Amino acid sequence: MIDAVAYAIPAFVLLVIVEALSFRLKPHHEQRGYELKDAATSMTMGAGSQVVGFFWKFAVVVVYAGVYTLTPFELDPTNLWTWVLLFFADDLAYYWFHRCHHRIRLLWASHVVHHSSQYFNLTTALRQSWTPMGGMPFWLPLVLMGMPPWMIFLQQSINLTYQFFIHTERVRYLPGPLEFWFNTPSHHRVHHGSDEIYLDRNYGGILIIWDRIFGSFAAETAPVTYGLTQNIRTYNPLRVAFHEYAAIWRDVRASRTWRDRLGYLFGPPGWGKDLTGPDAQVTPEKNAKEPT
């Protein structure tokens, strides 16, 4: 099974070095650049996610292979149109995976790791979850369609590899047609914004057209404030990985009704709190302090 992410790791490391040097040689007053502890935390989270993902993928392979043997459909991997269908089907699956991980708190507890940095650079792309277990159901429809699991895993890795390159402030905008169809650094800066106008926008993987179709698109119209609406102020990888699970447990334990318990688990982030927007994740007050 070919994993494009694993093969791309040397290029990731080289480009991180190049980007960091570019901020040293040509800083920009509106771009935050790099902070050593933050970048180290992001890369630690990335290394941990690769270890966890290696073992978790075995379980996913078993489930997908079992479902594949039961489906009456079988798409031909030697047919070009199978790959075209896979490209769009995988990207659509990623869109809904990503959107659900922002709108269901138990899933957000995993994905919040990726948004916990107050910087936006190539190391931010590496800040990944250590609890990837919520992703399995979203690609099952592709298996049921008759997609061989190895093709799905390959396309998933291609999608994630593409997304590494859009975590940068150094590229402002791409030519118009590319900005319309594809997820770009500008669109993804919006996604990482904690500003109210940017919350819960631009979920796309490779393509941005799903956001345009499903009404979750927002253009970059003002400088972006990165991070969470209430930042966690830590570089400790264990706290970064599990802080939201601890917060869920505190809320559930303090709840008096099953409605509240279920709301804190399966409602949107910020459920039961003083929300100010249709997709606000938590209370809008921002913490301006840097992590310690």
Describe this structure in words.
The chain has one domain (about 5-265). The chain is built from twelve helices and no strands. About 35% of the residues are buried. It starts with a helix and ends in a 26-residue tail after the last helix. By secondary structure, it is an all-alpha fold.
Give the arrangement of secondary structure elements.
Layout: H1 4-25, H2 36-70, H3 80-103, H4 105-111, H5 122-126, H6 140-144, H7 149-164, H8 176-181, H9 185-191, H10 209-214, H11 237-254, H12 258-266
Helix pairs in contact: 1-7, 3-4, 3-7, 4-11, 11-12
Please sum up the structure shown.
This protein is an all-alpha fold and 292 residues long. 55% of the residues lie in helices and 0% in strands.
